[in-house]
Design brief:
With 194 residues, the chain is an all-alpha fold. Among the domains are: 43 residues; 76 residues, Cytochrome c-like domain (Cytochrome Bc1 Complex, Chain D, domain 2, Orthogonal Bundle), CATH 1.10.760.10. It contains five helices and no strands. The longest helix has 24 residues. The chain is elongated and about 120 Å long. It binds heme C.
Length: 194
């Protein structure tokens, strides 16, 4: 029983759940030791910072510098690779190389371009029409890197030498003046026998 005239004592005041009359949430603060793993991680960051600082100032290394060096190296590499590519077929007219190129052509290319180069699944290589150009460099790129319309890349299987040789052979195939397989207005690519 409470006396109506006496102010309520603190322990008599109804408490809302989660809230105490003194304004706290009832979670008591304790004094546990900091876990070892946390201290170890914290010390680790300090050690890393010191090592990094010494390394950074002593060696002059920087992420930006490393990036720039790598970009420059890659650039010289591609330029060297480009410079290595002959712009003209080094085996043009070379009978021994053409004989080797013929073997490659019969083994690999003839399945799609026909042994006489007149085209089957792949377009004719003896008509006047060239979709990707008939300069030596363009032909080399076609055979080395492949083309999206179904021409595979032969770079890894043949290597530059054999690609040049097979192209030297292609140059010797008897040519036709009619638009052949794959040329605009000619029978479509991919229809053998048409
Ligand atoms: C699996 C079938 C296939 C084989 C094998 C193949 N080609 Fe092709 N080739 C194609 C197709 C399909 C195209 C047309 C690609 C396009 O239009 O994008 C093509 C395109 C070409 C072209 C470009 C023709 C143009 O009009 O510009 C050349 C050159 C060529 N091939 C040469 C070769 C040589 C040399 C070989 C052998 C090393 C070879 N191909 C092996 C399917 C083949």
């Amino acid at each position: 029983m409470t006396d109506a005239k006496r102010p309520a004592a603190p322990d008599e005041v109804a408490e809302l759940p989660g809230e105490r009359i003194d304004g706290t949430d009832g979670i008591a603060e304790e004094d546990n030791p900091i876990p070892g793993w946390f201290n170890a991680a914290f010390l680790g960051t300090i050690v890393f910072a010191i090592v990094y600082l010494i390394y950074y100032t002593a060696t002059g290394w920087s992420a930006k510098g490393q990036y720039e060096a790598e970009v420059a190296a890659a650039r010289t590499q591609t330029e060297a690779a480009k410079a290595e590519l002959p712009a003209a077929n080094p085996y043009a007219g070379n009978a021994a190389a053409i004989a080797e190129g013929k073997q490659v052509f019969v083994q690999i290319c003839a399945a799609c371009h026909k042994p006489d180069g007149s085209g089957l699944v792949g377009p004719s290589l003896v008509d006047p029409y060239w979709k990707y150009g008939d300069g030596d460099a363009a032909l080399f790129e076609t055979v080395s890197e492949g083309r999206p319309g179904g021409m595979p890349a032969w770079k890894s299987q043949l290597g530059a030498e054999k690609i040049w040789k097979v192209l030297a052979y292609v140059r010797t195939l008897p040519r036709s003046n009619e638009p052949g397989v794959g040329a605009p207005g000619a029978p479509a690519v991919g229809k053998p026998g048409s």
